[in-house]
Design a protein that fits this description.
Length: about 425
């Protein structure tokens, strides 16, 4: 059985939709697409979908980019260039290049595939796996591909179980006992529930498996339809559901719990609060997502850095970190960290105190600063003595503050302080 799944994965091409802006992350996506946003101390969000594909045995991958793609493309070039063309492996970066219509960029998720059909056909895959590039999870896609083939489905849709009251923000599926999808509705006010459990619903993960030739025909027909929005969730999947050819694949059947995980882990880190919490949660004694497990590695571009360093050992000026993650190249100089996650090259200076801080690469915190429950963007220089997290009204005036009290701090915000 293992060999069968591996063989199916080898015949599959993964196509990652990574053009999303991620506007709910506010200023964090002013200069980068959501899939390129940093996560977990070393990685980017897109590394999870790509690592899942590679770890599942899929070695032909396309990544469709569009919105502010420079940092994403640079990351892919630096960290994902290990494929060997002579083994029919490869990762193609596919910016919106107006190959079909010179007046349009990608008009929808389906169109982002349609515009690159000639490239996809060049790989000769038997199956196509469509992936979203902006979620945090570990999944062995070969199980989903195996189910797709064994059921003879026209499309297999990856889905997660969510409480019914939370399902209205997703595309939701109503299924029967065989996992056949009976209805597929986008963001419904009254979501359909699971068979035998009227408290939970099945929400789409934005992951789809198709037979390649069948998908080519679908997309070519969709491109000719002037009424279509050229979107998988709005057009393609509902049409297949209506024909009776769509099946659901619950995430629990293929999620990878390779370390300390107690239950399937999937997160959309599309808001400032969700992004902060998912990062800070990694500092827990037993985190819900174990990124230390080595049997399902999260591949990424890893900068060459010196080890992290903690210096000074005086009362009130002691370099220390408790329940925190500190990446290479960081210098914690006479400052105190509690439940913090520091990315590469962060420097914190003497007498500063950080609590619940996610500091992106090469941020710097000045002397006697006090920062609580905040995200510090890449390269931001926090001035000496700055206090964040004590006065909600002042914080909201100076920074991007959420209703839950999380502050996003960018360099332009710091510059306006005068």
């Amino acid at each position: 059985m293992q060999q069968d799944r591996f063989s199916l994965a080898q015949q599959t091409m993964a196509y990652v939709l990574a053009g999303g802006r991620g506007s709910r992350l506010k200023e964090m996506t002013d200069i980068r697409a959501k899939p390129a946003v940093y996560f977990g101390g070393k990685t980017r969000i897109i590394d999870f979908a790509l690592s899942n594909a590679v770890n599942s045995g899929i070695r032909r991958i396309g990544v469709a980019t569009q919105y502010k793609a420079h940092s994403l493309i640079r990351h892919l070039q630096r960290g994902w260039s290990f494929f060997r063309a002579e083994r029919n492996e490869g990762l193609d970066i596919l910016p919106a290049s107006q190959m079909i219509d010179e007046t349009n960029w990608y008009k929808g998720t389906a169109d982002a595939v349609t515009q690159n059909l000639s490239i996809i056909r060049g790989y000769g895959p038997k199956y196509i796996l469509i992936l979203a590039g902006d979620h945090i999870y570990k999944q062995d896609y070969s199980f989903m591909i195996e189910q797709h083939v064994s059921t003879g489905a026209k499309v297999t849709v990856g889905c997660i179980e969510v409480p019914k009251e939370e399902a209205s923000g997703f595309g939701v599926m109503g299924v029967d006992e065989t996992d056949k999808i009976l209805e597929f509705v986008e963001k419904p006010a009254d979501p359909p529930t699971m068979p035998g459990d009227d408290t939970r619903s099945l929400a789409s993960m934005g992951i789809y498996v198709f037979d390649a030739e069948y998908l080519y025909g679908l997309l070519e027909a969709d491109a000719e339809d002037p009424e279509s929005e050229h979107d998988f969730g709005k057009n393609i999947i509902p049409a297949i559901v209506a024909e009776g050819g769509a099946y659901a694949h619950p995430f629990g059947r293929s999620c990878v719990m390779s370390g300390l995980e107690k239950e399937p882990y999937w997160r959309d880190v599309g808001t400032i609060d969700a992004y902060w919490k998912a990062n800070i949660d990694l500092t827990d004694f037993e985190p819900k997502l174990d990124i230390y497990a080595t049997d399902w590695p999260i591949w990424t571009y890893s900068e060459l850095t010196a080890p992290a360093k903690f210096i000074h050992n005086e009362e009130g000026r002691r370099g220390q970190a408790v329940s925190s993650m500190v990446s290479g190249g960081c210098i914690v100089s006479g400052s105190s960290l509690y439940r913090c996650l520091l990315f590469t090259g962060v420097k914190t200076h003497s007498f500063s105190q950080l609590e619940g801080v996610v500091a992106l690469p090469y941020a710097e915190v000045g002397r006697r600063a006090y920062i609580k429950n905040a995200i510090i963007d890449r390269g931001v220089k926090i001035p000496p003595g700055l206090i964040v997290g004590e006065d909600p009204k002042l914080d909201a005036k100076r920074f991007r503050r959420t209703e839950n009290g999380i502050c996003l701090i960018t360099q332009s915000m710091i510059d306006k302080l005068g």
